[in-house]
């Protein structure tokens, strides 16, 4: 059984439960005004509060928001393969039509984080009425957070070990390293795994500036989740929730602990396989 991030789920459940009555009227009116097309495109990089934004949008509209979290803990290999197919089409300059995007996002009216963010330009053309939210944070703080989690050698690598691949398979994520490679290559270039901290910082600043330059101002919100509900609700033209705290989820320490758990499991499997092999050799020699 896949162990889900318990803290994150408990926090989100508490937020959803506590806000159900406070947001019932505004959520109903807001959700009814949204068509079946994608309404929000999250262009912000990983570790910029995308999980917090995901749950904030779900609280506001009572509708699902697509996130890398959903791929790993819900859709798993079925959606990983769909995304890999889209990356392959993109590399071959094959037009990705709306039917392909709808097949992935399905009932979700909002999509943030990877892999969505690296396709923000394509999605803006497919969904011309969609708004774009660029989640941001201090660049040095971002590098530090990424190096401890999603841009560490536990994730941002082109070389996974035999036992790591076994664990990915057991988790229902056998092709996740391939998806990671496609995502990071499109975002940072083919040498993403060799970037220094300074290069990663510069890439982050460049990423944000390109979005600011590309997206029309009336479609773009530059959003620091530390600012809470006010700028988000003003941008979306909906009421600010009363007595509902803005969700601040997926803290660095929680994500790093989950990644370290899988790293430890891979190392334990490596050790077990080595001991088993040595025992087998000893048995053959002495028998």
Automatic annotation (TrEMBL):
The chain crosses the membrane at residues 264-285. It comes from the Eukaryota. The keyword Transmembrane applies. It holds the Pfam family Sulfotransfer_4. Residues 1-24 form the signal peptide. PANTHER family: P-LOOP CONTAINING NUCLEOSIDE TRIPHOSPHATE HYDROLASE PROTEIN, P-LOOP CONTAINING NUCLEOTIDE TRIPHOSPHATE HYDROLASE. This is Nad dependent epimerase/dehydratase.
